[in-house]
Each structure stands twice: as structure tokens, then as C-alpha cells.
Amino acid sequence: MNHWQGLYGHSHIKSFLDKLLDSGSFPQVLLFSGPSGVGKDAFAFRFAESAVNSCLNQAGEHHLSFKSMVDKGLIRLAYALPRGKNEEAEDDPLVRLTPKEIENIKEEQRKKIENPYYDMQINSANQLKINSIREIIRILSLNRDFRIQNFVILLDADQMRVEAQNSLLKILEEPPKNTTFILTTSRIEFIAETIRSRSWIINYGILHDEELSSIMTEFYDLKESEYRELLPLAAGSATRLQEIISTVYGDIRESVLEFLRQTMVAKFNSGFKLLEQFSEGDSLKLILMIDLIAIWFRDLTRFRTGNTNLFYSSHISAFEKFDSRFSHIQPAPIHEKLEKFRNILTNTNTNISVVSFNLMFSLADLIYGFSAKNQTA
Questions:
Q1: Which of 3, 157, 232, 360 is the 20 to 30 Å CA partner of 56?
Q2: Between 327 and 215, the higher pLDDT residue
Q3: What is the CATH number of the domain that holds 147?
Q4: In terms of pLDDT, which residue wins out, 99 or 88?
Q5: How far is residue 133 from each of residues 81, 139, 169, measured CA to CA in Å?
Q6: What is the spatial distance between Cα 150 and Cα 129, in angstroms, rounded to a whole number?
Q7: Domain membership of residue 214 as a residue range
């Protein structure tokens, strides 16, 4: 039986999970770790669904859809939620939220169940609350049908704070019968070692372009022509590709070229304004700009070697003009600088305007050698 129809990539993980399903013996804790947008949640959903249906089949009962399993409490989902007004740790996780907030949560969960690659957008959700963990513990302590394997899926488990992780650890030390916890995370280092040591850790890699294409077609109903040229920016992540698609308006390559033009002629005020307008104070948009600049310099190297497989294939004149004036410039140091700024934006809360300013002058310095000139002087 093919349990993975419609899920893409990770063939070795599929084989491993198939063996678990065939054995009928499930670990108490599975920890799915890897980059965001590569299908960890989708695999968690499908594995739990397949395991529950296998149990239902043995009990002589009809198969259920994943949604039905969630509705019946055979599979429980937990994820980051907003904090309610005057909320206490003992409260039900939803009781202090407004009707509008609850409606938003229900709608986002519906979208996630329909499309497990979907990145939930719950307003003001910043942590997987201890309330949610305690509610799960309370429900699991009640009488239930132990013939059927139950699952608890914690999405982005790294969003649990210390107290929530400690609460989870207590139930993992004495887990309920026939219950498997699946934690998904793109930041495994934020999961307590005491939880990791009790888990079967499964590491996911990035997706190939053809796998991303299949996901965009099947789960987002997009035509390949709508995203083909953006695949090099996705870094193997469906989430990243979807973010880029939703961010892009018009031909973003023109914005990159205009920024490079302004920087190369030392019109720094204009270049800075362009970066500010493009990023709109959003670090992900500035990271996208950095990735696009990196691809331009990658294409420059290809152009110099006669390779015509270019993302900026319709802007050959830009490469010709750059090479006629800056033929001595090598892209490698530029890529190192761009990666440095990308890491800063990814791993810190640095002011975006400061990063934009330093990014522009670092590129200008590599082109014109301002630092070297100052040292000579």
C-alpha cells in the first residue's frame, strides 16, 4: 500500500516510516527535524492517518479521513496560539481569546488540514502554550478506546517555552498507552535535550525543484509558468517558494538591477531608498533581495564562461556593461558578503535599515575598494 501518494521527496524516510507502519509498533515520540517547508508536517499527518486507519482496519471499522480523526480526537494538533487577556497557565488554551481570534484559529487549522504544506498564519501567535500541553495531558488521562493508536502532533515544537517543554516531559516520562507524540521543528536546538533523548529523530533534507513544482501544482493550484523562474530562490523549501510568490509583484529582477546600477555609480541615497521600499521593514523581503543579488553575480560568472542558463537571461546588456567597466571584479568575495548579511537577518533581530545601509556600502566597497584606498591614504 502506498501511504505517501501526493507527498514528495524524502524516499529514504518514506521507506523507514513504511517499516514502522508494517510492524504495527510505534515509538512513543517521533521528532521530525529539518528546514521549514520541506514536508515535515505533511509526513506527520500522513503517518498518523495511516497508523490510525491500520488500527481501525484491525478492529473491523471503516477508514477515516485525517479531518475526521482530528474531529474525533484520535489525532490531536497543537501549535502556537495567541495569549488571551489576563490568561493564566491553568486556563483552557482558548477560553480567554476573543470570538474573532478563535475564528481565525479554526480557519487556519482548516487550511492546514486541507494543505499540510500550508504555513499557518494565526494572528499574534508567538508560542506553543503550556495551556495547550496541559489540556492534552488532561484529555489523554480520560478513558478511551485503547485498541486504536492515538497521536498528538505538535507543530513547530521549538515554539514551546521552558515551562511548556517541562510539562510535556512529564507525560513523556510516563506516556499513555497506545499514544505517539510527533514533534516537528526547523530549530531542533531549541528542543530540550531531555525531550530529544526520548525521541526517534528523523532528519529531513531540502526538496528538489521538480518536487517543489509538484507541490505548487497539487497543493497551491499554480501553473509552472507562474513560479518556474523563482525556483532558484526557494532553497528547496515549499514555504519559502510560496512566500516569494506572494511577495513578488511585477518583475523583481528590475528592482535588483536598479539597485545595482545606483550602487555602481555611487548614488547611495537612491540605492538605500530602493532597498527600503522593496523590504518594507520585512526581513524576509530583504533576504529575498539579497538572494536575487547573489543570483545576479552567479549569472555574471556564468555569462563570463559562456553559459546561457541565466536567471537574468533577458538582461544580457547589464552583464556586458558591468564587465566592460569592472572586469577585474570577482563574484566570490561578493557572495561571502551577501551570505554574511543573510545570516545576520536570519539569526538576529538587527535593525533592517542598518543592514540595508551596510549591505549597500559593502557592495560598493568591493567594487570600488574604498577601504583599500583609505588604508593607502
A1: 157
A2: 215
A3: 3.40.50.300
A4: 99
A5: 12, 10, 10
A6: 21
A7: 208-246
